[in-house]
Amino acid sequence: MKQYSTKIIIVLFSILAFSCSKDELEPVTPVDNGNPIRYTLEVPFGFPQPYLPNDNPLTVEGIALGRKLFFDPILSGDGTQACADCHDPARAFVDSTLQFSIGIDGNPGNRNSMPLFNMAWNIQNNFFWDGRTTGLEAQALQPVTNPIEMHNTWINAVAALQATSTYPPLFEEAFKTTTVDSLLVGKALAQFERTLVSSNSKFDQYLRGETALAPSELNGFSLFMDENGGDCFHCHGSASNPLWTDNIFHNNGLDATFTDLGLGGVTGDANDNGKFKTPSLRNLSFTAPYMHDGRFATLDEVIDHYSQGLQSSSTIDPLMKTVGQGGVQLTPPEKADLKAFLLTLDDYDFITNTSYQAP
User: Fold this and answer.
1) 51 in a domain, yes or no?
2) pLDDT per residue over 12-34, tens digit each?
3) Could you tell me if residue 277 is inside a domain?
4) What is the pTM of this model?
């Protein structure tokens, strides 16, 4: 079996050069004027600075309001479905093990729900599998009016919130107004979602010098980083990019022809057909099934796809350079090692963090 551990020192040097301490944003300024209290988002070891829009600063009150809205079914057309019903904290904010989420009318969609974490570090600021929205605030608005999802109108959703005794005071605390509107709902949800930080996997602990990896895990990591091995790092990053995604769009060889155009359906450019956003590799144990359409039930199936299941098409990403032979042709021991490494990206603290659960 190949041994791939020789690159570990280089990668560790890279991340230490990138960030040698646990940084924070600027300190919170104490306030005594009744304005919302600024919230400082801690930047985990090795992470770059987050993207935080100037027109929606994080505040204690805004995050609390967004958290309450996220778990409240009041936003749905019949008051039965909350954001959390398709984004379960216990499963890294995906929809249980369903291939497609089910809306309030019992109708399934055609995409697998995406996990929600580390979204403050999406500097490309694009969201959904097909990138159809720019900005987390805009993304938060869409499920409410989607006829397959929460099947409501914002006029009705805002009226329902305004009619309660609890929400107008909370909007007053967060945004200095008792008048509810959809843009403020989107801002509150985005604030809460930006606090969903996954940064304490076994591999994170390894990079911080807090634990060791097993030989199979180390070998799998080097295989992940080897252009002549797994060749995974181009799209999913490395130890110096702890997001484990480039947050951009690729045709990763799933299909020779397309029933779902992905990014091409948004841009109208045939060169974008079959391209979907790269998901993070964090928390894979909790986020099955995999790919935009949930076609792979297990991580083994995903590894098999890249090993020998690549399909050529007119928009196949140049990074899928082994498509002519069907994939990277991993041996069974190499597949086992690669899987062992990928599972070190699971963050059990994230899925049990009470700050991310229903208030």
Assistant:
1) no
2) 434 444 343 333 333 344 444 68
3) yes
4) 0.90
